[in-house]
Amino acid sequence: MSQIIDGKAVSAAVKQEVAEETARLREEKGLKVGLAVVIVGNNPASRVYVNNKKKACEAVGFQSFEYALDETTTQEQLLDLIKVLNNDPKVNGILVQLPLPKHIDEKTVINAISAEKDVDAFHPVNVGKIMIGEYAFLPCTPAGVMRLIESTGTEISGKQCVVIGRSNIVGKPMAMLLLHESGTVTICHSRTKNLKEICLGADILVVAVGKANFVTGDMVKEGAVVIDVGMNRLDNGKLCGDVEFESAEKKASYITPVPGGVGPMTIAMLMKNTLTAAKQQAGL
Ligand code: NAP
């Protein structure tokens, strides 16, 4: 029987730290922190994420600037807005909610955001910094996972770490962060052979596949730390992870639930990145 990692509690602690530092810097240095969130179109899931980000900004004492653009917004118009935000000193962080409508090229848009304000850490400059371990911003979801692992008191150094998934947003940066902590890291993907055997060797197993209940208890090593990044909406409307919780929790020492595990961490780490951006821009 495993211990459940409470992502809500850990994320609340991160937000509390950010709120306290924000209040202190406002008081002592007159620093104000602002995050611009840009959404294009009416994707209902994106709207929920944007609203949650706005609420989190309010909770930690940031100003939030929302730009809700019509589905028909052209790439040129979006790039013009990003230029304005890049030059606006009230805006310390810029987040463009993905996915964007098909007629807009995501790469071009991400590359247009000033690297200093790229609080999602998707800009190639920030991705490069992650590779060499000199990061200004940690990518939010992998950084949240690291904080959850830390909350269990588990030492990463020398451990067998397996990451399933190699996306630019989760899998790849996740593997890098574990490597920087001296884990021995294996990255698995859809072409990986013997996935079960590889997983059974994992002391720390991070799953970011996007398939409900993909990892089952028979793939989990006794005593492993299991982190489920997956967020899958089932036909009955319920949210479900990539790990079959009931069977995996019988083997794991620690495991994240879905919901209430990695999900809340992503926004908390976004708040942390925005404060970091504001401090850097103010030379603090
Ligand atoms: P993605 O871009 O679709 O990547 C999925 C990865 O899983 C790919 O690398 C893919 O391999 C791999 N994969 C697919 N089938 C596989 C198989 N049978 N065996 C082994 N690997 C397989 O997804 P993502 O953006 O990384 O997101 C992954 C999940 O995390 C999704 O459920 C997403 O909703 C969730 N997510 C959650 C948060 C959060 O805040 N909690 C944030 C981001 C994402 P190939 O590269 O070979 O295709």
Please supply descriptive tags for the structure shown above.
284 residues; alpha/beta; six-stranded parallel beta sheet; three-stranded parallel beta sheet; globular; binds NADP nicotinamide-adenine-dinucleotide phosphate
Structure description:
Helix content is 42%, strand content 15%. The protein has 284 residues and is an alpha/beta fold. Strands 1-11-8-7-5-6 form a 6-stranded parallel sheet. The chain has a 3-stranded parallel sheet with strand order 3-2-4, with helices on both faces. Helix 7 (171-180) links the parallel strand 5 and strand 6 (184-188). The chain is globular. Bound molecules: NADP nicotinamide-adenine-dinucleotide phosphate. Residues 141, 164-167, 169-171, 188-192, 195, 208-210, 229-232, 262-263, 266 line the site of NADP nicotinamide-adenine-dinucleotide phosphate.
SSE succession = EHEHEHEHHHEHEHEEEEHEH
Query: Got a strand count?
Result: 11
Compute the separation of the termini in Å.
Answer: 46 Å
Shape: globular
What ions, cofactors and ligands are bound? Answer: NADP nicotinamide-adenine-dinucleotide phosphate
Q: Please outline the major beta sheet.
A: 6 strands, parallel
Radius of gyration: 19 Å
Percent of residues in beta strands: 15-25%
Class computed from helices, strands and strand pairing? alpha/beta
Q: Which percent range fits the helix content?
A: 40-55%
Summarize this entry quickly.
With 284 residues, this protein is of the alpha/beta class. The protein is 42% helix and 15% strand. Strands 1-11-8-7-5-6 form a six-stranded parallel β-sheet.
